[in-house]
């Protein structure tokens, strides 16, 4: 336990900004010896700090974790391309990053960015695409960019009248009756304001006894203490109340998993099957969506999800008026989009908690977070990021989707999202 505490303490101060990775290696492939070595080190403690093990794991999760494969059931759409007018112009967009002021092209080529792939779509057309550390057909880790997938099934069930934002969790999950989370409303889960000790932060990740550390250990089938392996559901049932719900935005993967449990209870389907029926089977994707599973079969929709980068971009397009280019029906309703566009808890609640961190990360203060999206702007822009520098930005009105994949927590690419969107909106 002491070793783990010291290790996690070091992670808080780990100079991730100086990490440099040869991303070409992950594009060109690994040797047999490297595959075996990295696989043996792909445990929770070994992945938190980023680096070569994380870089390998983020493209090979199905080799070391249970995985539900959600197939692409429709012929893939073919994107029109308009790179001749835009690619050079976007490459020259500048942003102030922790690595200094640089152009997008410089940020992507800087090894400290560990930038593996990026795509920009404007009005349904590809205007920029690059794969310095990934082959286009390779699948990669979404990280927390996946969190809106859990929210999307809840949005659909709200649209269908099968549940309500104001309902308490215990209405659908009887085993949570009498617990802090059982007494929490669905809208409070959607917006990560539960007022419970489920917060996922640098501080909680350095505490081996925190709820956050325990539910991550459970997902990796690693013992919490005394050789016992818990389940995420059991851990969340034991979460305690820290204050009134609705007052502070506190980021939490465990809270996202509560949405998974609710969706399964209401649909009567395993989460991967429900997402297949309701979403992925209607997407004109190039490849399968890999939904990685905890040892007990729980779908880790909070982030342990993989797909091709273009398919992540297709998912982003579902939130725009250009959805018909990539799907055979509207999957994200106008009503759901209206709910996302207007944060229920506003900027004050956002900035009391993790909003400060996200605003610094993005370089611009949003209106707030909303329904599993990290940031929503007054002009409609929506952002969702991931732990190791993954990101998805959507500007619905302009039909802009930006998706990128890297493997360092301090990736500078997030600082380019708003400048790129503004350049495309001129």
TrEMBL record:
<keyword id="KW-0378">Hydrolase</keyword>
<feature type="signal peptide">
    <location>
        <begin position="1"/>
        <end position="20"/>
    </location>
</feature>
<keyword id="KW-0732">Signal</keyword>
<feature type="domain" description="Beta-lactamase-related">
    <location>
        <begin position="117"/>
        <end position="418"/>
    </location>
</feature>
<dbReference type="Pfam" id="PF00144">
    <property type="entry name" value="Beta-lactamase"/>
</dbReference>
<dbReference type="InterPro" id="IPR012338">
    <property type="entry name" value="Beta-lactam/transpept-like"/>
</dbReference>
<dbReference type="GO" id="GO:0016787">
    <property type="term" value="F:hydrolase activity"/>
</dbReference>
<protein>
    <submittedName>
        <fullName>Class A beta-lactamase-related serine hydrolase</fullName>
    </submittedName>
</protein>
<dbReference type="InterPro" id="IPR050789">
    <property type="entry name" value="Diverse_Enzym_Activities"/>
</dbReference>
<dbReference type="InterPro" id="IPR001466">
    <property type="entry name" value="Beta-lactam-related"/>
</dbReference>
